[in-house]
């Protein structure tokens, strides 16, 4: 059980008939020897790669996150070790975060906060989300939950994934994310909910940002490296677009990073899925899979290690 600190332990696992070894990254080398299962409670750790030579008994690694990009490396991909993730736990909370970001942008909340701090009374008209357009990049479970909630609020929604197609039950139309620059101009809100893979790293570059319509809004609840942050800073500085950012190339975002002072941006601390009780949900999900593993039953939420995500649909 890899934790950020050895004393920071998942709740509710005490009754499981297995031997747990709790450690932080500096103790993983010793703890992983002879272990059959590794649970990454510290889900952004990259320590597994460093101790892989000691992990010869591993059968299964569980990551308590939706994204597994920080875990995967070539030796793990080529091994027989099964990887599972926290598929399903964060879908609705992240969708709610996105809806909140969309509404806050439409209602010009940043400007309202600035006026309040300056004790200035300034009446304004804002926009309705009814009939606004949202392009959700990433058609997996989180993207689909987001699409359903945005559509329920009255937005017109499209998806962007690996394969373009029509008549999707959640998105209606799915366009090819490889042609994103030609598609983002349709949207008032571009929502990034895709896994970080070789195909999505740097996907939102200067060309894509320049193709976004003036006044539109970028929401990133995926991974920071999907966006070229230098190009994003330029786009924000020009006043053409706004952004709500929950993820960044470097986390925590350094205090000196220019994004803190960029105009038209809302920054949160990688917390879009972290609603009250999320740790309990993650631990309960893992406990369910442990019971299945002990019973010899198929594990839930198995990640395709070559793709880097659970292939529930073309993303």
From TrEMBL:
CDD domains: 2-Hacid_dh_1
Domain spans labelled D-isomer specific 2-hydroxyacid dehydrogenase NAD-binding: 100-272
Hydrolase found in the keyword field: no
Domain (D-isomer specific 2-hydroxyacid dehydrogenase catalytic): residue spans on this chain: 27-303
Pfam families: 2-Hacid_dh (PF00389), 2-Hacid_dh_C (PF02826)
InterPro entries given in the database record: D-isomer_2_OHA_DH_cat_dom, D-isomer_DH_NAD-bd, NAD(P)-bd_dom_sf
Gene3D superfamilies: NAD(P)-binding Rossmann-like Domain
GO molecular function, one term: oxidoreductase activity, acting on the CH-OH group of donors, NAD or NADP as acceptor
Entry keywords, A to Z: NAD, Oxidoreductase
Superkingdom in the source lineage: Bacteria
Record-stated family: Belongs to the D-isomer specific 2-hydroxyacid dehydrogenase family.
Protein's UniProt name: Phosphoglycerate dehydrogenase-like enzyme
Source lineage: Bacteria, Bacillati, Actinomycetota, Actinomycetes, Propionibacteriales
């Amino acid at each position: 059980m890899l934790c950020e600190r050895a004393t920071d332990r998942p709740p509710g696992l005490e009754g499981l008939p297995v031997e747990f070894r709790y450690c932080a990254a500096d103790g993983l080398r010793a703890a992983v020897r002879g272990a059959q299962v590794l649970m990454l409670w510290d889900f952004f750790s990259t320590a597994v790669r460093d101790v892989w030579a000691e992990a010869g008994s591993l059968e299964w690694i569980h990551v308590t996150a939706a994204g597994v990009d920080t875990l995967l490396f070539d030796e793990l991909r080529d091994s027989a070790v099964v990887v599972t993730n926290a598929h399903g736990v964060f879908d609705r909370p992240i969708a709610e975060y996105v809806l909140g970001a969309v509404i806050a942008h439409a209602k010009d909340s940043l400007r309202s906060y600035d006026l309040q701090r300056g004790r200035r009374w300034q009446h304004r008209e804002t926009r309705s989300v009814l009939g606004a357009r949202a392009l959700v990049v990433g058609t997996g479970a989180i993207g689909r939950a987001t699409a359903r909630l945005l559509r329920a609020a009255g937005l017109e929604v499209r998806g962007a994934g690996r394969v373009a197609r029509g008549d999707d039950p959640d998105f209606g139309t799915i366009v090819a994310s490889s042609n994103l620059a030609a598609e983002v101009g349709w949207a008032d809100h571009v929502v990034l909910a895709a896994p970080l893979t070789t195909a999505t790293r740097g996907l939102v570059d200067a060309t894509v940002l320049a193709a976004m319509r003036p006044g539109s809004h970028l929401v990133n609840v995926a991974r920071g490296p999907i966006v070229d942050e230098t190009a994003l800073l330029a786009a924000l500085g020009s006043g053409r677009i706004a952004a709500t950012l929950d993820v960044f190339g470097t986390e925590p975002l350094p205090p000196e990073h220019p994004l803190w002072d960029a105009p038209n941006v809302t920054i949160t601390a990688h917390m879009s899925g972290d609603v009250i009780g999320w740790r309990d949900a993650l631990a309960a999900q893992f406990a369910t899979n442990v019971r299945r593993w002990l019973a010899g039953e198929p594990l839930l939420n198995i990640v395709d290690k070559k793709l880097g995500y659970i292939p529930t649909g073309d993303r």
